[in-house]
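Human: For the file, kindly provide a plain-text protein record giving the amino acid sequence and the backbone structure tokens, at your earliest convenience.
Assistant:
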Amino acid sequence: APNESLQPEITSEFEVGGEFRFFTGRLTVDLTYYNRVTTDLILSVPLAPESGFTSVISNVGEIRNSGIEAWVSLDVLQKEDLRGFTWTVTANYSRNRNELISLNDDVENVQLGGISTMGYFAIPGQPMGVYQGSVPKTDPSGNVVVDANGVPVASTQKEYLGNSQYDYILGITNRFGYKGISLEATFDIRQGGLMYSRTADINNFTGNGIKTTYNDRRPWIVPNSVQEIQNPDGSFSYVENTTPIDQEHVDDYYRADAISSDYLIDKSFVKLREVLLTYQFSKKMIERTPFGSLSISAFGRNLFMWTPVNNQFIDPEVTTFGNDIAADFGEFSANPSLRTWGFGLKASF
């Protein structure tokens, strides 16, 4: 629906920082702290279908981002230290704490994306991008309730299961040099946050996930599970479950709404983001050419990746949900990311 009263977002920010140099410039540290508040936050808000529209872009609330950023550069070796060898280490660190302070009085939450079994919400008092999904039904003692086939039953109430925000981001680059040759290697480290993975879901459903080798793929009983019995007076009692999940119903287990939270995986990773090998021709070598400078290089990007144990499925950076906040929800059978190799030639005249 059109919104003639839409106003621009207004951001107010306090920032303080400093640059510090030590050991005659060998070590440089640049630190910044910021606190940023945005009012009249613009989001898409759902409307009742009988209005003739499904959503409206509206000013809905207030959000705060605060955190620190740091850049550090250290010359481990300079030319005069070891016969012309150089070694420089640089690191970029950032930690952002995000909180949706409030929504307008008539808005309880805003759905940012998701699928039928897993929602993705903006909720006051929480970071942007909170997951709400199905969980197993439990008895008063906390035991998992299963059906007649031993498969967990989903609770009628969905629960909040975490958010997609990183705890911190860290980049580290090592640069080695000798005469005209330089070698750079950059690691990208991201820690914390969750993502939904349909690839994990479908791998387990088809039996390709390592998790599906549980109990050597023989029938098993869900640990600490019970079956629910309705009494004549309408109340319920619970008895220990003795029904194993057999081969006929194992696919029902991996498709069950009750375990959809299993497909929220840790999106932390460590990547060897780039390796770059460069040769810079000396001035003497090109003095009789039209070039002012000349270099050749070879590079590789996205070469290796390390992920937590519960993510043996997907590159955490891929998404199939666009490029705004909804993209942080995760992926729905996305294509794998690519490893890239290449060569470069740079010249000035």
Notes: The radius of gyration is 27 Å. The chain is about 5% helix and 50% strand. The helical segments are 198-205, 250-255.
